[in-house]
Design brief:
The chain contains 26 helices and 20 strands. The chain is flat. It is an alpha/beta fold. It has 6 domains: about 260 residues, Rossmann fold, CATH 3.40.50; about 110 residues, 3-Layer(aba) Sandwich (Aminopeptidase), CATH 3.40.630; about 100 residues, Conserved hypothetical protein from pyrococcus furiosus pfu- 392566-001, ParB domain, CATH 3.90.1530.10; about 45 residues, no CATH class; about 60 residues, no CATH class; about 45 residues, no CATH class. Strand 15 and strand 16 form a beta hairpin.
């Protein structure tokens, strides 16, 4: 179940998959080196205990001070919850089961969030499905019990638990403590205000002082302690053994140990911190993960000191090793630090030539972009390299024309190849941006569409309807799905194949497109040969297979995008009656909503009132924009963000308009004989309704008749 529906998802200190993988690697290595016991204070949902159990640890202890963890820990251990003394404040009653407590934790949270359309809907659904949710909670806790068969749980403050086990040989303590003062108290406030239980004594944890207190508590002890910290960049307490960029700007996550050298020994790393080197961040903030880079973004290369390089290499990689780079640089995008890289001029030690400059390392911040490509493009630029080699080359009387290579050090997954090698980076033609070098002189490039030149002669033609569909397809995606093949000549960028795709992209409004660019200096004869080959060498469709593929298309927009003739689809429909072929005459819009069960029932009732037809159906596409506008106004008026809740809000109002208020209704037409009344009568009626409404005498327009009849004004009217 989703977090919003699952009380079992309420826990503190959740780690990301990569974080858990690192913890698992430490625990695995520790077990292989004689460690036998894992202790998890601040256990929450027992995430660390699960990892330990999966690795075969048989001595696992967990503790916490929350009612949630107390119930969960006892259930997994196989103990009843009666000793917790849980009672509901309002009734004085005790829960019947552990699952009921979990249900109530989430129920209290939803009660506090009620009052909005969305909050009310969530509460109604949660209450209406109580039996199903309780069953699901039982299943989840049973699975956890089976996964951790050897758990010992205690209601205990983290410091008390750590002091009790810190001198036990072969112990690893994994403490995923709160990340802000009073974290537990704020997180579980909803249930704490409504439930009484035998709560253990504890001290409020307050980072960062709390982190230091934990390290002090195990100083000189046998146990290996690992602490979870979320702090501003570089402000960690203790020595990190792992780190990553956090989910908030300027905040990083660290795993800190009381014995980092022991962690390094277990993992087989060689970094020594006996004499910690000076580290310091630069003045630039790290680029946020969701930052949007535009065409107007400014990219700069800034010299970074040794202390800066150490800082960011330590920040970006948990398996930190010293760098042999002779100079380091930071890539700054719009004032944010986006990555760092370093050059090495010690060519002979790496098997290179005397005039080689090596890229010793390169790493980037975590963003929604593949910044590593940009980083290596920047690192390979003549202007970037020049600063690194200017002084050494002047000393040796060498020209500033160098080769740039990569050592392979610190290359993260997916970094790809270096974009320039074998001389200075080639000058790019006007309107051309090289994205990646491929092979044999071919590169992937982004070009100004107006800088592309068609061949003077082109034998390939395209029918107007096919071309128009191509324009539509490109416009819908905003890019080309098949890249034109072009060559770089003295005349500029010439198209070899892809003339119609380029024309269609221009017609669709694209100003830049991606292409495959051949820069191998082809002759005019070779260009002509490739033009003919690209047009002539193509496969032939197997008719039977084509019919089977076409039978998979059920949406009219997809049918149009396929560019197959309408006659072909009609033939397919005749040959395969089971194929739901949409009619080309209609312009379809498909809208999908997600409703809670009671919301769906209300919608069904409304459809039954408005039509005798099946409540699932189609509507005129012309109504779509009006519906969207009505939906947006409803969300604004009702302060609703969830679309399903907004539709339900509209449904409830419509049901009320159709008489779902406890009264029996008839249509006005059934009284007057028709739905129309003369204009002068309508004007008088509207005036009367307006005056009575403003006076607060009526709320619904039809109530005007009650007033008229009661005061006799209706007689003789």
């Amino acid at each position: 179940m989703a977090f919003g529906q699952n009380p079992g998802a309420l826990f503190i200190g959740t780690l990301f998959p990569d974080d858990k993988a690192f913890v698992a690697s430490v625990l695995k290595a520790a077990k292989e080196n004689g460690y036998t016991k894992v202790v998890e204070p601040c256990s929450g949902q027992l995430a660390m205990s699960c990892i330990a159990a999966d690795l075969g640890y048989e001595d696992i202890e967990a503790s916490d001070i929350t009612i949630f963890s107390g119930v969960l820990g006892r259930y997994v251990e196989g103990r009843p919850i009666e000793d917790m003394g849980i009672k509901y404040v309002e009734t004085g009653e005790s829960p019947e089961s552990a699952a009921e407590v979990m249900y109530e934790i989430k129920h209290r949270e939803l009660l506090n969030a009620a009052g909005s359309v969305y909050g009310d809907a969530m509460l109604i659904d949660f209450e209406s499905r109580k039996d199903a949710i309780l069953k699901s909670i039982h299943a989840e806790m049973d699975a956890l019990k089976e996964r951790i068969p050897n758990l010992t749980y205690r209601d205990m403050d983290m410091f008390d638990h750590i002091n009790a086990v810190k001198d036990v040989p072969g112990t690893v303590i994994l403490c995923m403590c709160p990340t802000y003062k009073g974290g537990y108290e704020k997180f579980y406030k909803a249930i704490s205000d409504s439930v009484e239980w035998n709560e253990p004594p504890y001290s409020v944890f307050e980072p960062p002082a709390g982190y230091q207190k934990l390290l002090d508590a195990v100083e000189g002890s046998e146990a290996l302690l690992i602490i979870y910290e979320e702090v501003p960049v570089g402000e960690h307490v203790g020595t990190p053994v792992y780190g990553r960029q956090g989910g908030r700007v300027g905040i990083n996550m660290y795993l800190v140990s009381n014995r980092p050298e022991e962690v390094e020994r277990l993992l087989g790393t060689s970094c020594s911190r006996k004499k910690p080197a000076k580290i310091a961040p630069m003045k630039y903030p790290l680029m946020p993960q969701d930052y949007v880079i535009t065409k107007k973004s400014r990219v700069e290369v800034v010299k970074a000191g040794t202390e800066n390089i150490r800082y960011y290499r330590k920040l970006f990689t948990h398996n930190f090793t010293p760098s042999q780079a002779s100079s380091g640089y930071a890539m700054i995008v719009d004032g944010y630090l986006a990555g760092i890289f370093g050059y090495m001029t010690m060519a002979n030690t790496l098997g290179g030539n005397a005039d080689d400059v090596f890229i010793g390392f390169g790493m980037c911040t975590k963003t929604n972009y593949r910044l590593n490509r940009l980083l290596y493009m920047v690192a390979c630029q003549r202007r970037s390299v020049g600063a690194a080699i200017q002084s050494p080359r002047r000393a040796h009387g060498l020209e500033a024309d160098v080769r740039v290579r990569h050592t392979g050090q610190d290359l993260q997954a997916g970094h790809g190849r270096v974009l320039a090698e074998g001389g200075a980076m080639a000058e790019e033609a006007a309107g051309v941006e090289v994205i990646a070098e491929l092979e044999d002189g071919i590169c992937l490039a982004k070009v100004d569409i107006n800088a592309m030149r068609e061949q003077d002669l082109n034998a390939r033609v395209m029918e107007d309807d096919k071309f128009n569909q191509l324009v539509t397809n490109i416009g819908k995606r905003g890019t080309l799905e098949q890249l034109p093949y072009c060559v770089e000549t003295e005349r500029g960028i010439e198209i070899v194949s892809g003339h119609h795709r380029t024309r269609a992209a221009r017609a669709a409004g694209l100003d830049h497109i991606n292409i495959l660019l051949d820069r191998s200096k082809l002759t005019r004869s070779s260009i002509a040969a490739k033009q003919l080959a690209h047009n002539a060498i193509e496969g032939v469709d197997d008719k039977d297979t084509l019919v089977k593929i076409a039978a998979l298309i059920t949406d009219v927009d997809d049918m149009l995008e396929s560019a197959l003739d309408k006659d072909f689809f009609e033939k397919v429909e005749q040959e395969a009656a089971s194929m739901p072929v949409p009619k080309i005459d209609f312009e379809w819009k498909t809208v999908q909503f997600t409703f809670l069960s009671h919301q769906l029932e209300d919608l069904k009732r409304l459809c039954e009132k408005t039509s005798s037809a099946d409540w699932e159906g189609v509507a005129d596409v012309a109504q779509f924009d009006r519906f969207v506008e009505a939906l947006n106004q409803t969300k604004k008026f009702g302060d609703v963000k969830n679309v399903g809740s907004a539709v339900h809000f509209m449904t409830e109002r419509a049901l009320k308009d159709f008489g779902e208020d406890g009264r029996d209704y008839r249509t006005a037409a059934s009284v007057f004989g028709k739905g129309l009344i003369p204009q002068h009568v309508a004007d008088k009626l509207e005036t009367k309704i307006k005056s009575l409404t403003e006076a607060g005498k009526i709320k619904n327009p039809w109530e005007v008749f009650d007033i008229l009849f009661d005061d006799g004004e209706g007689e003789g009217a």
